[in-house]
TrEMBL record, chains A, B:
InterPro entries: Aa-tRNA-synt_II, aa-tRNA-synth_II, aa-tRNA-synth_II/BPL/LPL, Asn-tRNA-ligase, Asp/Asn-tRNA-synth_IIb, NA-bd_OB-fold, NA-bd_OB_tRNA. The keyword Cell inner membrane does not apply. Residues 111-461 form the Aminoacyl-transfer RNA synthetases class-II family profile domain. Pfam families: tRNA-synt_2 (PF00152), tRNA_anti-codon (PF01336). This is asparagine--tRNA ligase. Belongs to the class-II aminoacyl-tRNA synthetase family.
Length: 471, 471
């Protein structure tokens, strides 16, 4: 029997309703319809049986009620089914609606003895090993939906601010600005005999995977003024922390600083935008699922931060605060001119200010060549945004616009100024350059912070890190 | 003087208005404000001078009027400026509004003798060589805005249909399903001496750049039911056609086929979605710029196709039509069991049906292992969408859900069935699989079709192809 879809706007919807739509939209309680999904759990009683059916569209799925208990024959966890019946308001406390089932079709069986996604709690490590199936678990599917919603939030925010979404290249001749952490493409074994002029490099010269879209975004900003991207980036780092992936996604934006607000202007836009993403998702069902087992203090710190102005301090003041800190012993002594360690950032954001913290104007020798030198001759116009329990979420800067200063820094870093090296980057200042600024935000870290997730490996569908690449 | 922004909603906008906003939104004609941009052209007369100011936010920019002509001293094409003045309705025919300038600040000069973006028409090849500056030209900036708008259209469409946006991995152990066109990462020269167990492969085994997100999307669809992505894909193809890039972006979607509509259902969603993107952008200023010099027949074919149902025919019928074709001499003889050549696709869509054409049910031996075998034992449940003047825009299929048939095809193709080879892909059928379908669309080809652009190299910000990778 063909299910009735007349309760939905047929013009708008090409596909039958998902469970999310059945839970949230107007339904006709007398219409018979079919719902597809997989069995999350099943409870058989004498006179009535219950199953939770999920299609991954909604954190709770929908409760299926079987007044004819024989209909549940052959149903086990993980089985894919097509259930036909009527949607009713649920008399139960735990769910709003349920499906009163009068027909069952098994689409794909699932042997309960060997199904890797058992009902009991499964360790994070076990689920990583079963990466192809982990999207069926509550937490991973909630994270995936959260990512999707955040992607929409990001695009809405930047569109409203007059930015254009762009796709910067993944393969580039740039080698991570000399930082030495980039992946390189393998050469091809043999040039084709019929094309002797081709080298074994596909592009004629070495190709690297991008470590950041920034330089390319600056080229596009010279034409479009406000651009952003959410792009994969790659770092061949061996460090095995809970904040690093070999392949990750970065939100990067670059724009003309019309009113010359400098670093403070970037911080303003970043704070405004992150609060906007947070307010789009906090309180939603997916975030509720993810926060279920997280300590209350983390959640409270996050929620409180959304209604207050975030702290800002210079690197110099941060060093002073660390040096004056009582009752805390740092492994690394905080001293002007040295990198802030994770322990320092953690203390500053979690203890000292108790919320997100912008640290600005780092010494130039700690930062890349493209950041604008401040008048003091020592620091550069930049910031890191540190958030509690995650650490660095965003980094950004005013870009050096003075071509002579830029080129001298590039020479010092050993970056070639030829047209096919980094000369094009200096060119952007030579032909009608304009003061501009930008930032990069690790998208997995945003997901980690808003979702209360400890490890960025659980913030991306299929994580890759040193020695680990499944699927 | 600080410009007045009070005419805009200050809460919503973090940044000063772009030219697009000044052209489209309510403005106070008595407010003085500042606009940043670069000079596109300048015309000096005795009593009044005019310049076109662009910030890339709007196809036409804005006309700046200088009643005090001395204000234009030092202004040349490409110079970045901050102009202060009042927005007025224009008495001219060609623009709606203009900026009556009373203050000029030069932000970045531009030597007109050496500026690569001269006013006269510049060849496509020349602009490719000056890729870092080409976003300042009318056509490239219109293409970039079109891409951004299409990205929004795509996300709106799939969100409405209950799909979640996902980020599938770029690095993968899969080697293009044996097709041999994938890029591989280089090994690292030396394993670290202090970590003797690490091989020179960063991930412990070879890593390739993805050629398609499909297999990974299927894993995510097994949990979320409806997923899509717009992801970079890579093909190490040496062919130098106007339809191929080594790095390109592909829109791929995968979903549970709830009502078992099969190939016809996929075609329905694809047609509906592409018409929806087209109706979002056709008639807009950016598309107008891009279509300026394109033959009228191409535009008419495109616009006409949006209000009619697109043709569908089987591969078998397509072969018959080609064999029966009068007054046309094909280089390759059309014969059942052979690949359709570009010349065949071109004739079928441009001459035979005069619009987009779905060709369905190709012989299985021409298509990959994952497509579902039809009952006839020869063909598979798949389609290609051919559009006039571009060729193949979309390809998709019903996925083989019968694990025994799938595994036997995989063995035949020499694909390993171990857990860390392609075994995980077969697993998706083993544990509660469900009939599902999907497609992939080359995003640059969509831009080419809707923008009337001949070569996909002009459909992406920074194209890469064999022997060519600038920036």
């Amino acid at each position: 029997m063909k299910p009735s879809l007349s309760i939905f706007r047929e013009v708008l919807y090409r596909l039958p309703p998902t469970i999310a739509r059945l839970q949230h939209e107007a339904v006709n309680p007398d219409a018979t319809l079919s719902v597809n999904g997989f069995i999350k759990s099943i409870r058989r009683q004498k006179r009535v049986s219950f199953a939770v059916l999920s299609d991954g569209s909604h954190a709770q799925g929908i409760q299926a009620v079987f007044l004819d208990t024989s209909l549940t024959d052959g149903l086990t966890n993980g089985t894919s089914v097509r259930l036909t019946g009527k949607i009713k308001d649920s008399p139960g406390q735990k769910q709003d609606r349920e499906l009163l089932v009068d027909g069952v079709e098994i689409l794909g069986g699932c042997d309960p003895e060997i199904y890797p996604i058992q009902k009991q709690a499964l360790s994070t490590e076990y689920l990583r090993e079963n990466m192809h199936l982990r999207a069926r678990t509550d937490n991973v599917s909630a994270m995936l939906r959260l990512r999707s919603r955040l992607m929409h939030s990001v695009m809405n925010y930047f569109n409203t601010q007059g930015f254009y979404f762009t796709h910067t290249p993944i393969l580039t001749g740039n080698d991570a600005e000399g930082a030495g952490e980039s992946f390189r493409l393998a050469q091809f074994a043999d040039p084709q005999p019929d094309r002797p002029n081709e080298t074994s490099e596909f592009f004629g010269h070495p190709a690297h995977l991008t470590v950041s879209s920034q330089l390319h975004l600056e080229a596009l900003a010279s034409g479009l003024s406000r651009v952003y991207t959410l792009s994969p980036c790659f770092r061949a780092e061996r460090s095995q922390t809970n904040r690093h992936l070999a392949e990750f996604w970065m939100l990067e934006a670059e724009w003309m600083d019309v009113n010359r607000e400098g670093v403070q202007g970037i911080c303003g836009l970043v704070e405004d935008s992150v609060k906007s993403y947070a307010s789009d998702v906090i309180g939603g069902q997916d975030v509720e699922v993810l926060w279920k087992d997280v300590e209350e203090v983390r959640r409270k710190t996050l929620v409180d931060s959304l209604s207050k102005t975030w702290a800002r301090m210079t690197y110099g003041d941060a060093i002073k605060a660390l040096q004056d800190a009582k009752n805390v012993k740092f492994e690394f002594e905080p001293r002007w001119g040295r990198t802030l360690q994770s322990e320092h950032e953690k203390w500053l954001s979690e203890t000292f200010v108790g919320g997100p913290l912008f640290i600005t104007d780092y010494p130039g020798n700690l930062k890349p060549f493209y950041m604008r030198a401040n008048e003091d001759g020592e620091t550069v116009g930049c910031f890191d945004l540190i958030v509690p329990y995650v650490g660095e979420l965003v980094g950004g800067s005013v870009r050096e616009g003075r071509v002579d200063i830029l080129e001298s820094k590039m020479r010092k870093d050993g970056l070639g100024l030829g047209k096919h090296e980094y000369g094009w980057y200096a060119d952007l200042r030579r032909y009608g350059g304009s003061p501009h600024v930008g930032f990069g935000m690790g998208f997995e870290r945003l997901v980690a912070w808003l979702g209360g997730i400890d490890n960025v490996r659980e913030c991306v569908p299929m994580p890759r890190w040193a020695s680990k690449m499944l699927l």
